[in-house]
Design a protein that fits this description.
It is built from six helices and eleven strands. Helices cover about 25% and strands about 30% of the residues. Helix 2 runs antiparallel to helix 6. It starts with 13 loop residues before the first helix and ends with a helix. The C terminus is likely disordered. It is of the alpha+beta class. The relative contact order is 0.22. The strands form two sheets. An eight-stranded mixed beta sheet has the order 4-11-5-10-9-8-7-6, with helices on both faces. A three-stranded antiparallel beta sheet has the order 1-2-3. It folds into two domains: about 100 residues, Gcn5-related N-acetyltransferase (GNAT) (Aminopeptidase), CATH 3.40.630; about 130 residues, Gcn5-related N-acetyltransferase (GNAT) (Aminopeptidase). The longest helix has 15 residues.
Amino acid sequence: MICVNHKPPVLDNPAFAALAGPHKHLAERHGVALRYPVDAAPYAAVPGQPEPGDWADLATLAGRPAQLRFAGAPTWAPIGWEVARHFRLQMIDARTSVGYCADAMRLTAADVPDMLDLVASTDPGPFLPRAIELGSYLGIRRNGALVAMAGERLRPPGWTEISAVCTRAEHRGQGLARQLVLALTTEIHARGEQAFLHVSADNHRAIALYESLGFQQRRLTPFIEARVPRGAVRTAIAGRAGAAAL
């Protein structure tokens, strides 16, 4: 059941809020359009109710034939943009207890090759070489090999998204993901922030895990992928000029 009592608006467009706020130092910008470096995170962002000129800014920023991803907002794209849409369940942490993982180690840039290898074998979602710049990442090694990790991605004001939660198949069932998520949420609480995350709506096992850790379902969040079409910049600029003339 989706919670209706937890409606922090900043989470409706978390990538825009992050890039305009705590992740401003990472943001690439043209006009109002923002995006992460393409080797850090896959998300672009515009205001939740974008104007035609905002799409012009985005097309100019991305170039063509770039394919852009949006988290939460906007939920549409102009005619001519190729769009694919799916939904993920957004969950927020309502936990008051703390957790600690004795086996967890803080991952650094030197660990990125092992992190990429772990992601390739577990497929937790997009993870790029510079993702480690987005926030803290914790991992667990066994006999020198990285077998589990979890980290921080989007950082809208007052919130931190937990992402890249993954465990190698042969090490599942040992509670490693649980320990790492608890350790991360404890760090996030210590900063005076609250944790949130996104999970596939049909991944009932993961949802049950997060609920057991104190996360509550907030809403189904739309994620869209949109490809910049030919003429997008010219079309959107014309739309902006027409709107200004009204």
